[in-house]
Amino acid sequence: MPLSSPESQTLDPLMPGYSFNLYLVAGITPIIEDGPLDFVIDRPKGMQGYIINMTVAGQGKVFDGEDAFYTDPGDLLLFAPETVHYYGRAPGSPNWYHRWIYFRPRAYWAPWLKWQDHTRQVGKLRLPDKQLVAEFDELFQQIDRTHREGRVTSEELAINLLERLLIRAYEVSPENQPKSLDARVQEACQFITRNLGQDIGLDEIARHVCLSPSRLAHLFREQVGVNILRWREDQRIILAKHLLHSSRTPIARIAGTVGYEDQLYFSRVFRKRVGVSPSEFRKTSGEPLYPYQSANMTWPHMELDVPDNGLEFYL
Question: What InterPro entries does UniProt report for this protein, alphabetically (predicted)?
Fold first, then answer.
């Protein structure tokens, strides 16, 4: 939907003077050495909206001097509003083809528009493989085609596709990739899980993984995000919720199974973490999946296959 009439402006978005008074405009800029588009884009005050572009052939150059950097096929750039635009074909490159989308974002897109790697507020993302390059290239083309279809809903459909593109860019950014845990932290998680009903201290866990208690505590918090005791409590509560829902086992026995000898203390911890008491949780979580059979029954699901990431084992 136009924000204002562009009648007094050029109608070619590739040429200087185009108003960009739209919520979304998309295209491809084919810059060839000495061709009609072979000039430097120079917008000292940037633009009102965002521009995301992707180099598909040749090489481009952004900025001059110490801030200068180059963009190659598979590189994405994100220019925020009012960010300086100064870019063109890189000297020595016979061409620079880049797909681009100018857009006004929806409010809830904000987290996907904060790229960690940037120079002078120009976000940079290098796609690591040909499959991703092909995926993003197709998304750019779909957005361009959809916006040009001329249907009543063309712009909204194009914006939906753009949302997908931004989410995918967020997903593939290096800072958003899942980080593998140190093998010793994984082993600590597995050891705790295998002995969840036992009151095992930090010293014993550290000896098991051949680290000092202080080093293990530091490494665990750094990689998992919480300290060992809090993580163990999380796992105990997760298992307790499962047992409360899946059986008629008395609450006192469940408390002992997950490492709390005192049922009243277990109930206090459970209420603090879950918001209701164990008995209230059982009443509101539906019929148990398995009946309680005897005081001597064993739980086959206690023999756990621990996931490699060493995190929420019972989720």
Answer: AraC-bd, AraC_XylS_family_regulators, Homeodomain-like_sf, HTH-like, HTH_AraC, Tscrpt_reg_AraC-type_HTH
Q: What is the pLDDT of residues 253-302, one digit of tens each?
A: 999 999 999 999 999 999 998 899 999 998 887 655 444 443 333 333 33
Nearest to 285 by CA among 242, 314, 252: 242
- Straight-line distance from the first to the last Cα atom of the chain, in angstroms, rounded to the nearest whole number: 45
CATH homologous superfamily, domain 183-302: Homeodomain-like (1.10.10.60)
Q: Which residues have C-beta within 8 Å of that of residue 91, sequence separation ≥ 6? A: 61
Spatial distance between the Cα atoms of 291 and 297, rounded to a whole number of angstroms: 11
Tens digit of each residue's pLDDT (9 = 90 or more) over 79-124:
999 999 999 999 999 999 999 999 999 989 999 999 989 999 999 9
As a whole number of angstroms, the distance between CA 315 and CA 312 comes to 6
Residue ranges of domains in the chain: 24-176, 183-302
Residue that the structure tokens 């008074």 belong to:
21
Q: 273-290: buried (b, 16+ CB within 10 Å) or exposed (e) per residue?
A: eeeeebeebbeeeeeeee
Q: Could you give the C-alpha distances from 15 to 3, 11, 37, in angstroms and in order? A: 20, 8, 8
- Residue from 48, 4, 24, 13 nearest 154 by CA: 24
Pick from 94, 62, 88, 64: which is nearest to 77 by CA? 62
Which residue, 176, 257, 261, 181, is CA-closest to 220? Answer: 181
Task: Say how far apart CA 5 and CA 284 lie, in whole Å.
Answer: 59
Q: Read off the pTM.
A: 0.57
